[in-house]
């Protein structure tokens, strides 16, 4: 169980002084995947290996959408609760905004979908 986060702001939720937690493995997985994809590797001082290697492998001149796809697929697949990536669609606009939609099969048998995750590369 993880602390429940607001889906829009990604801040911890507090309801009447209580801190709710995720209610299922799939809720926790969805939240963990989003947070890992939105965190730059090296950004979190308690674990500099946590996050997505944006500066190390994604940002830079000449990075193709295919290269970014491979890196992000590896980040997604690395989660212990991800059994398989069942859908993966990305777009790269002319102004270098990378948009990602994907779905994974969780170890509890549910399919988790994350849509419109955007990163400027």
Describe the model.
With 121 residues, the chain is α+β, with helices and mostly antiparallel strands. It has one domain (29-120): Nuclear Transport Factor 2, Chain: A. 26% of the residues lie in helices and 26% in strands. It contains three helices and three strands. It has helices at 25-38, 54-58, 65-77, and strands at residues 82-92, 97-106, 111-120. The chain has a three-stranded antiparallel beta sheet with strand order 1-2-3, covered by helices on one side. A hairpin with a 4-residue loop joins strand 2 (97-106) and strand 3.
Question: Can you give keywords for this protein?
Answer:
about 120 residues; alpha+beta; Nuclear Transport Factor 2, Chain: A; three-stranded antiparallel β-sheet; 3 strands
Number of strands: 3
- Helix-and-strand structural type: alpha+beta
- Count of helical segments? 3
Indicate the mean pLDDT: 90
Please tell me the CATH architecture by its name. Answer: Roll
CATH topology: Nuclear Transport Factor 2, Chain: A
Largest sheet: 3 strands, antiparallel
Estimated radius of gyration: 15 Å
Uncertain residue ranges: none
Concise account of the structure shown:
The chain has 121 residues and is α+β, with helices and mostly antiparallel strands.
Secondary structure elements and their pairing?
Blueprint: H1 25-38, H2 54-58, H3 65-77, E1 82-92, E2 97-106, E3 111-120
Antiparallel strand pairs: 1-2, 2-3
């Amino acid at each position: 169980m993880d602390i429940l986060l607001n889906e829009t702001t990604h801040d911890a939720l507090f309801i009447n002084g209580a801190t709710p937690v995720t209610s299922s493995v799939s809720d926790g997985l969805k939240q963990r995947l989003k947070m890992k994809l939105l965190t730059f590797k090296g950004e979190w001082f308690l674990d500099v290996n946590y996050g997505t290697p944006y500066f190390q492998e994604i940002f830079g001149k000449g990075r193709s959408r295919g290269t970014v796809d491979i890196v992000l697929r590896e980040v997604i697949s690395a989660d212990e609760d991800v059994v398989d990536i069942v859908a993966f669609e990305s777009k790269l606009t002319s102004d270098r905004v990378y948009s990602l939609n994907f779905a994974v099969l969780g170890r509890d048998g549910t399919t988790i979908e994350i849509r419109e995750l955007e990163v400027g590369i």
